[in-house]
Phosphotransferase enzyme family (Marvinbryantia formatexigens DSM 14469), 371 residues
Amino acid sequence: MNQKTVPQEVLNTFFPGTSLADVRSYGDGHINDTFLVEASGSSGSGKFILQRINSEIFQHPEELMENIQGVTGWLRKKITEEGGDPARETLNLRLTADGKPIFKDASGGYWRVYDFIENTSCFSQSESAEDFYQSALSFGHFQRLLADYPAHTLHETIPHFHDTPVRFATFEKAVAADSAGRADSVREEIAFVTARREYVHTLVDKQASGILPLRVTHNDTKLNNILIDNETGKGICVIDLDTVMPGLSVNDFGDSIRFGASTGAEDEPDLTKVSCSLELFEAYTKGFLEGCGGALTPAELDSLIDGAIMMTLECGIRFLTDHLEGDHYFKIHRENHNLDRARTQFKLVSDMEAKRSDMEAIVKKLAAELC
Ligand code: ADP
Ligand code: GN1
Ligand code: MG
């Protein structure tokens, strides 16, 4: 669903008595509809991020907002204690006139508003190893600040979100059903996934046997889910908190590598431009280990590379599944967009598999220095 207009009742609810200078689509997330609102008036002036939550994907938006209120409240307290600026370093929700963080419109759409964080940039590809390093510090730091968060209070906003064997089973069903009639045209990609049938269990098995601990994790650690301060160049705010849930730290690490260590865009059609940069991999690993502040266990350090390969494979499986099912999950902007995305992920998986020993050497060297 890609709704491009905002009902008046939504604006009246979040911005009563305010004249709105501008409301326009914003950002390039794949899931929610995001708008930038510029307002002036008695109940508050300034810029805001208004979002229509994708309630086909997040089926319990009120629970999701309970998570976000809890997590942002916790972060605000910790950031203040550490001498930071909570107005810029975490998301701040704007409530409705009756104190709610969410509003349901007459046609069933769910809406929320955050203060807009000014003078920041959000990158859809790494422009420099330094920016990527900064994002790693931020995601590692985020995990450290939430290390003692009461995990049992968090709702599971998307069940089995990073359960790769479940993603694999859903993919196999999509191939069998072939509801969009596309399976024959993607036999090579299907074979790529099927060849990794056993591998998809690697991390969930380690979690089930207690080798890898569950932590409070972000679960969607793309570079464009960090705001970088335009003046200092530092990663200041982790955004897109919809999937904060108990999970594996190696998946947070891995999802960042999947997206930000690639030399090409996530949807680059020319696969010769797509590979995993070892320079970017090293920059991120350094920042993540520093940001986590020595909290990772030896087993987690040992599984970082599997985190990178698994998140990339899983994301490729999800894009290919969506292509096979007729593109109902991720927003697409052109024909075969999900297929192009799946192909970049599989190219990266192959490249990381080939570079595993180089990546291992980098992790070993940095762990010895920093952990
Ligand atoms: P999605 O779940 O669709 O990815 P996000 O929550 O990541 O949505 O928001 C989409 C984009 O909006 C972000 O990539 C970022 O550019 C921008 N954005 C979101 N929240 C803020 C904020 N509080 N201040 C400034 N920009 C923001
Ligand atoms: C989605 O919301 P966004 O665009 O940050 C997706 C992630 C995928 C990512 C791929 C809730 O993230 O899981 O890794 O696209 N979010 C959800 O780019 O499914
Ligand atoms: Mg996002």
User: Anything to note?
Assistant: Residues 29-31, 57, 220, 222, 225, 240, 242-243, 266, 315 surround GN1 (ligand 2) (CB under 6 Å).
